Amino acid sequence: MASILELFILIPIIGLLFNAIIPAKMEGLISKAALATVSLQFISIFSFTIYWLFNNHPVVNAKDFVLYGVPDYEFFIDFYFDKITAAYLFVGSFITFIITIYSRYYMHRESGYKRFFNTILLFFVGYNLTVLSGNLETLLIGWEILGISSFLLIAFYKDRYLPVNNALKVFSIYRLGDLGIILAMWALHHFWHENITFYKLNNYALVHEHLEAHSVVGVFISLMILVSAATKSAQLPFSSWLPRAMEGPTPSSAIFYGSLSVHMGIFLLLRTFPFWEHQLSVRILIGVLGLVTSIVASLIARVQSSVKSQIAYASISQIGLIFIEVAAGFETLALFHFAGNAFLRSYQLLVSPSVVSYLIKEQFYNFVPRPLTFEDSLPKRIENSFYILSLKEWKLDSLMYYIYWHPLKWAGRKMSFLNMTSLLRFFIPLYIVGLYFAYHKYLLSPQIQSFLPITFSLIGLFMILKSFSERKKVVLSWFLVIMNHFWVGLAMSFNADFNYEEIYIYLSGIVVAGIVGYLIIRNLKSKERFVNLSHFHGHSYRHPRLALAFFICCLGLTGFPITPTFIGEDLIYTHIHSEQIVLACVISLAFIIDGLAIIRIYARVFLGPNAKSADEMAFKSS
User: Fold this and answer.
1) In angstroms, rounded to a whole number, what is the distance separating the alpha carbons of residues 127 and 185?
2) Which of 280, 370, 273, 600 is nearest to 469 (CA)?
3) Structural domain for 320, as ranges
4) Pairing with 78, which of 171, 200, 244, 301 sits 20 to 30 Å away (CA)?
């Protein structure tokens, strides 16, 4: 039974690879191949679930293969199947099947027809990998695929300003969720001194024993899991990203933000429930967060003029209720609620274009407002205040700007001393000196060595902050991202037990992606007069192949699971000691901003309106 779980990952991967080699002009073959893939997946999952139920529905845990192993550490892929997996797999495969049929006709004659179906299949790979994951490492692989496919679908209309800008905003929120999972993984490594699986989390005696000895660490892990779940499921204060994500095509909105991707935060809470179920403070926090989100999102949904935004906030409100159900321990109820909400929102989003056109006459000629609403029972001043706040969406977007994007930009602007001259004259020589002492540690006292990891990692963080805020030189921004990784590698070389083989694994993907990406930038500069980061240039309009190659390099530089760097990042956290929480936070922040800086470079260079387009395109309107 365990070997069949691999099939649920292989089917969408094979479908994606086959679709990738089909010429873009062959719409019929592209859609048939995608439909065949999701149909086969749905039939396989349905048949396996029936077989699993009739065999007393056992919990299946399969340690598939080890990607990297040393005596005290293993990075392995683990698959897990229980009723949570069964529910998410069935709902996901069925909705993807329906939306694929719908998209065959809805996306007809779109210039990005093949790109759309490829991205849907990429999302399907990430979704299945996340749902079948048996440990956080495997889950993170699928989580990253979901995040990048989400960015691609929101920015599907890549020649427009708003879709690209909103895609960047959504991706930046997703990176906060990645930060939560990364820190939770780091703490769990030290909590159990191994790569813990979800199967072991169900061992109450084992979990209770560890929590009694490390209660503070347990609360920290639970809070990081909650941060990841709240960002992915658009709970407060991260709710504003979901309506912004509706810039993509209607089918992608239905599959991502109405049904599947937005419920992955609930999946994370359900999967880790055995870990935090006995932490009363965490359960209360999750319940209160869900309640407040549900109330605020309901108020906002009632005043929305856009049907997609109304559906988005209504979905957020229902997910808030599911958070309460999970916190209360009603696992089965939460799964039924998830399935019902997913099917309803998918249906609403798919019919929304038709409903709008059908109700135009009704709106203009037969509309009669309701004589009495719940708000009328409130004092008029309070009612008006709620109305204005809801119209402004409770300033959630502005709140995220002031507590998230603005501090990063402000800090980056303070790093104006970081330029090519200072890098060549000071920082690169300093790095060489640090590298020399890394190979001759006996020349340094233990006291000095203990300060070097945090010092060097801070230098890397300063560089990535400058890269994120750079608005002129593309090469400088790209080079600063690469240097950040090298400084992190140097910082970890002074931490105990971090050998040079592991540093090579970490930096191997960085070096290859960095060099190829630099060559692509130089090539583009030779063809285009203006290539900077002041605004979106849209060079993918003229250079689609360069854009694709550069995007792959961006993925490699962010530690996406296509290079050994992904394993190297996990190795780094295994060597950050439990008392080095500041070092863990600095390196995590550097990794998160690294992803933002890289995707920002790609978006500003290759996406957005192109000045050389033969067709007129609005700069700041979708």
Assistant:
1) 20
2) 600
3) 2-361
4) 171
